[in-house]
Target: Hcy-binding domain-containing protein
Amino acid sequence: MGRENGIDHEKKNVLNNLMENAGGCAVVDGGFATQLEKHGASINDPLWSALCLIKNPDLIKRATIPGFLSRGLSMEEAESLLKKSVKIAFEARDEFWASVKKRSGHNYNRALVAGSIGSYGAYLADGSEYSGNYGVNVSLEKLKDFHRRRLQVLVEAGPDLLAFETIPNKLEAQACVELLDEEKVEISSWICFSSVDGETAPSGETFEECINLINKSDKVCAVGINCAPPHFVVSLIQRFKESTDKAIVVYPNSGEIWDGIAKKWLPSKCFDDENFELFATLWRDVGANLIGGCCRTTPSTIQLISQVLKDGS
Model:
């Protein structure tokens, strides 16, 4: 098997192969916690949707080892739950794929399982993933220490991809890039930022300077935006395309605003499924290679995105 800069070609190309098989633009899943709520899960908790790994694992996405430890679990239990999240995702994927293969003439691509690595701010559960303000005491080394063991455990679990999500500042992006090198990770990854103004990262730093440091990494295969209002997406894709040759991934929320302090969604103008269906082709046409949804989007949202992209490919 060929290798390039320490990465197996097969592992490096898994994401590129998915995009190529999908005609250049593949579909990402939707708002997982939103669907858990519809099935009766309560996620108004610092652990967010990861609470279901403890209370209802059959109903799962983002978890942190410190988050589990803060709930009184041991390190061994916390790491086991993190691995369990990947195992459950694989089981669901493989069960679906086994049923699909029995159908003649199906046009599905085998789904990939991404290990989600949320931002330090998401762990704090204080809304700082939408401000990028971690305070003067949070250094590059502290961020790497925070993410390191979770990254190691997820890599051991063996997902197809690693998804660093809702990154609000350049410092945390740098921590992610450096960790991938330090840990000699051979799994393809993407790094997605959030944005509250459609122009810059939540910290106020330009995306150009954030992306420039990511461009130096051969371990990061795609960059993009998640959990930002969908009406920002077109201009952000164009901005990202000017700064990188990497694939562009976008999975915005519905446009509703999450109050990280009050722990509730605020009334606001939002996209319904028909808007996502309309804009998905525009996002693809201006340069997005992976398109999905984040908070408050549903399976029906993703179904419409998938169908309209297939119809237009």
Summary: The first helix runs from residue 9 to 12. The two ends are 32 Å apart (CA to CA).
